[in-house]
Design goal:
82 residues, SH3 type barrels, six-stranded antiparallel β-sheet, 6 strands
């Protein structure tokens, strides 16, 4: 399966995604898009979810970032195939 063939069935929010897995950002959707973009989140970037909870921690471009669950709900991701 190629990246272009990933359908909406494979999309989930970063808040829903499993801890310890790598994902590719497919879209930013919601009122926090500008804030997310200023933090470095953009389409096609790889991200790893490190921890879950009230705030989640993810790794993006070698940096660890904490996100509120509200912002994480606005990041649509798909799994990265190994």
């Amino acid at each position: 399966m190629t990246r272009n063939s990933i359908g909406t069935d494979y999309l989930q929010t970063l808040a829903q995604a499993d801890v310890g897995c790598n994902f590719r950002i497919q879209a930013l959707n919601g009122p926090g898009c500008d804030k997310l973009r200023s933090m470095g989140f953009c389409e096609e970037m790889e991200i790893r979810k490190l921890a879950d909870g009230r705030n989640l921690i993810c790794s993006l471009c070698g940096a660890r970032l904490a996100l509120s669950s509200r912002l994480a709900d606005q990041v649509l991701v798909s799994p990265v195939e190994a």
